[in-house]
Each structure stands twice: as C-alpha cells, then as structure tokens.
Write a structure and sequence with these properties.
434 Repressor (Amino-terminal Domain); 17% strand; Rossmann fold; DNA-binding; six-stranded parallel β-sheet; six-stranded mixed β-sheet; homodimer; alpha/beta; Peripla_BP_I (chains A, B); Lambda_DNA-bd_dom_sf (chains A, B); transcription (chains A, B)
Chain lengths: 340, 340
Amino acid sequence: MATMTDVARRAGVSVSTVSYVLTGTRPISDATRDRVLAAMAELDYQPNAMARGLASRRSNIIGLLLPLTGRALGATETAFVTGATEAAREAGYHLMLCPVGTDDSDELQTLATQRLLDGFLVMEVQLSDRRVDLLRKLESPFVLIGRTEDPTGLACVDIDFDQTVDDAVAHLVQLGHEAVAYVNHSAASLASGYGPAKRTAAAFEAALRRHRITGVMVPTDDTATGGRQAIREARERCPRLTGVLVMNENAALGILAELREAGLDVPWDISVVSMVTSEVVADLASPALTAMTSPGSALGAAATRVLLKRLADGDGTTYEELLPCVLEVRGTSARPRKKK
Amino acid sequence: MATMTDVARRAGVSVSTVSYVLTGTRPISDATRDRVLAAMAELDYQPNAMARGLASRRSNIIGLLLPLTGRALGATETAFVTGATEAAREAGYHLMLCPVGTDDSDELQTLATQRLLDGFLVMEVQLSDRRVDLLRKLESPFVLIGRTEDPTGLACVDIDFDQTVDDAVAHLVQLGHEAVAYVNHSAASLASGYGPAKRTAAAFEAALRRHRITGVMVPTDDTATGGRQAIREARERCPRLTGVLVMNENAALGILAELREAGLDVPWDISVVSMVTSEVVADLASPALTAMTSPGSALGAAATRVLLKRLADGDGTTYEELLPCVLEVRGTSARPRKKK
DNA sequence: ACCTTTTGTCGAAACGCTTCGACGAAGCGT
DNA sequence: ACGCTTCGTCGAAGCGTTTCGACAAAAGGT
C-alpha cells in the first residue's frame, strides 16, 4: 500500500505538498498538482483514513444514533437512513449506524469521547432526552431528528406535524366529513413524552377547532390489533364518525381489517387517512391507503447537511427545519355516503 | 481530553505500560494494573480511536455492504443489521453501514483500501458478484450473507433455503394439499442470478418430487400487485391448486387481497404460507400469515462472529453456515376443504 | 549454585498524515 | 528601483497510540 511519502518521492516534491494537493489547504501550481496527481494514479494511492483522522482530529464519519427497539425499521426510518448516508457520502463523509438505547448513557459517552465520530444525528428524540443533555455536556456537535421540549440552542430537523395533521384534516373536511377520529400512538408513548405523539395530539385539537368539526383522539398500540381496538373505541365514543386519521401504519391496516369485518365499506362508510406512511406500505392495503407520505429521505439529507454545516462553521445556534408530509390520495378516502 | 501520557504520568508508569494494561498484550502486575486503572478512571480517560487505529492498523470497525435499492429495508434485513451490530459491539467492534451498489466497484475499492474498515459483511449477494471478486483481489477479509455460484474459499452465512422450502412444502403436504404454487421473486431477479430466487426455485422442484405432489412456480414482482397477478396466473395454470408458497411479504398480502376479492376463503379454499417473513408483517394480514420466520438477527450475529474470527485468525478457508427459517403456523394454512 | 526462562517495565521508534513557520520568487503599487 | 503582499514549496513538529528491543528481577530446572 503506497503512502504519501511514496507519492511525494515519485512526484519529486515534499510530503506537505502532496497533502496540500489533497486537501486544498494552500495554493499549489498547476504543474505541481498534475505531477502529484499523476504519481497518485500510478501508485494507486489511497489516503489512510486513520492517519488522516489522527493528524486532523476529524474522522469524516458521522454517527447515526438510532435506538434499536428489536422491531423492524419502518420505511420512513429506512428512507431517512439512506437519505442521510447519501448526503454524507456526497460531502466525503461516512455514516455509521449506532444502535444505542435512549438511556444507555455510558455507551453513548464512550462513542462521543472516542473521537471516532465528528458528530451525531439523533433519531427518535424524546421530548426530554438524556442523550441530548449528554451530547451537549460533551460538546459533541449533533442534529436532532425530532424536537425536544425546549429546542433552544439545538439544531432540529423534523416532520412538520402541525402542518401534516392540518392538511390531513383539511382533506377530510373538504370531502364533507364532520366527525373524525385520530388514532394516535399508545398511551404509554404519550405519557413518556414521545414527541410526535404529543405534538400530533395538540395539532389535531387545533385542526378540529380551526375547521369547526368534532372528533376524538384514541391512543393505541402500534400494531394491527391496536388499530382494531382503537377503531372500535372511536366508533363507540363517536357514533357519527365518518373519518379516521391514523398515525401508525400497522394500526391503519388493523383498522381496515376491523371495519371490513364489521361490514363497513371503506371509503364510502368511513374514510381512512394514514399519516407518515410510505408508498410501499400504503399499497399493501386494499384499497390502497390514502396517506400523508413522509419525506424520509429528504429529512435524512437535510439533517446531514445541517450537521456538516455546523461541523464546518463551528456554529451552535438554534436551528429548525420542518418538512411536511404530502397528501397522497389513494383508495381509502372519499365523500361520506349519507349526509346525516 | 486526557491522553495516555496523562494517565501514565498520574499512575507513575510509562505509556507503554498503560498500553499493555489496555490491550493485554504483555503481562502486568496486579499492583500496576490497579494504579493505571485508577488513573484512567480519575481522568475519564478514553483511548483515541484514530491513534489506536493508526498504530495498530486495525480500526475495530467492520463494514456492512448493503446495496440501497431506494426501497425500505424489510424486517429481515433490519433484524440482520441489529443482530450484526449487537454481536460486533459485544466484541468491541463497531458496525458501519455502507450503502454501496452491487456494481459500484470504485466506491467499494475506496472503502476497502482506505484502511477504515477491518473487514466486510456483504449483503444481497448475487450468484456472480463483482464485489466478491474485488474484495478477494484486495485481500480484504469478508463474509457473505448469501452464496455465490461457487463458494470455494469463501465464508458464507445464509438462510437454509432448501430446508426452509422443504419444511414449508412438508407443512402443506401434511395438511393434505396436493397441488401447490410457489410465488417467487421476479423473473428479472431470477435472470440476474439473484441467489435466493434461483435456489428456492430449485428447492421447490426438489420438494415437489420428494413429496410426490404437483405444483407450479410463478415469478413476480415483490409488490402487492405482483402477488395479485401471480395468484391469478397460478390458478389458471393449475386449477386444482389449494396451497401457495410465497417468497415476498408484499406479494403475500396481495395474494390474500386478490383471493378475498375472488370470493375464496383463506385458509379453507386456499392455504398461503409466506417464506422468510417476520412476525410483525405476518400479523399485519388478516388472518395472520402462516410463515417461515426468518432468523434475521441470528444470521447477523453469526456472520459477525465468523468475520471477527477470521480477522483474529487470519484464516481464509471455505466456511458455510446455514440457518433455516422456522415454521410459524398462524391463520392462513389449514387442511383443504374439499377432497377432490 | 548456575544457567535459562519468564515476568514486568521502560524508552524509543514507528504509524501516515496535517499543519505551522519559514523563505525565496513573483507580482504590484508608487 | 523600493518595500509589500501573495504564491508556491519545504522541513519539521506533532497527533496518541502500539509495538519492539532491552533489561533487571524473579522463578525454574538440574
């Protein structure tokens, strides 16, 4: 494996010159640059990442903190990861997946102080998140995917839940629905302060008021069974219900199944709009789910860009970037059949 | 940030001694070790990963090569990733996700020669895979998830497709089915030599012969729509069909939907067994899918262990480890209603 | 008791790069 | 022609480890 010294010798220059050609830190004459580049090509030279990292104290690797729940990564999360990786690569960075639990402070501390990673992307952010406090204390640059209670001094990239919920409700209202349910994440995640759960709950309330319609929120497990229970409960609590907004994809499928078994026709009896859903999953259902498509990959790319910018500028001001999900009308939403 | 020199000074020993305490490369007296450990704790010392990597020419990071298709990672793949990460961490390694296309040789070459990664886990292996040739040429240690045409000299960890298909067919035969279809991956992936597609096709043939029943194989897209088309084609080609084996989860859901719309009752008219399927997805369907549950996380852990072993031993002999999927009977398989 | 290992420790030389200070050679305003 | 920047290059000092050779002291073998 050729080293920089070999390249320098071959090109008849000093190693520092070779380094400058590589990093562009100082001006180099065209003639010299060409000779160096040629020498590199001839020797199949590849800079040694470790040596570079040691000398520059920058690894060009960013870590993606994602709590592994044991369950599958949803399509949104996957898209996020690929989007982030892609964006990182374009900037000459690598992305390292770090499945670290939300409260595994030791592991995170090790990661952050090892100087292996230049910064972090933090997924699945809680309203009050210990990882945030820790990273802050350690002065590691990071960007949140989601938001904490108080985002002052933090960089956040997130789905615009307010907008998304409002768009979804608006869609139903426009079709003529006047009583809708919102099937949220579980009561447990609401209680634990899971951001999306709490924020959509608030946004739903606001949307109801804004559009002057009635509705109920039902928290439930993120499973098909959870969806079944939720829709039963919702219909009990609000019999004139004609529209359902649902946060979780699995629950959405459960709702569809339950309604079908109850002899109800989707979308004519009840419309279902799934939130933060990818196309693949939406097509799994029959009829295909009308859904708010999550901007997963765009989010990943945005988060990465923000982080890299901060690494470059050393800037740590508050920053927030929100991307809404876009409505994709498919088969599960329509004008309700019978006006009361 | 404390360095090894600080620790050495504080403990009253030389830096090399500190290093030996850390790496265990040479014997150290208990008294010294305790002093050094104490000094580390007091200083919150964390070894610098880059310096370590440079000096030892080992990064303690392994790369996971996974071609990003733009689509979501299935539950199996996700489980694989988490299993691998987990196993790596237990051994003091990190796992880095590298979304590199199957034929993006340049990118892979850069990765492999950069000395950032000690070895590779290769996912989505084709029967003839350029990455394998390249890694071999570069003498990078690696382990395949899947198998190439000729696995001589390679280390492979894979799902035991032969066993899995045979188990699935056996399940149907035992219930009394005599004509079954196998809905495989797309014709395109078959043609491109995608291992699982080709191997299951062969295994299905073998299973039919072994159990003396008839059947047809239908390749189709890995989508719900693909599943719908496939089941229609299968029933045309083999009207007495009572059982279906299906490779892709999305297709499985499509098949269920299509059968329901055709007025057929699952499992009484037709049984459906989904291959290589995770529990979450199986429960999405109604009735829940009888499926061969893929050993995703176990595979990941196994692959990692094999790779780490090779890194330690410098051993490069042929090695193969196959894990079968295990049958999970749920609601979509049963004794067929009417004996002919 | 003598020679040979083994044990425990140290100092110093890498590892392959970045970056700083220095310095001659141009280029420029006057 | 005179200083003044800017340009282009070099040598050398790190970056924080690991690892090698050396060596004194303790332990074994006969």
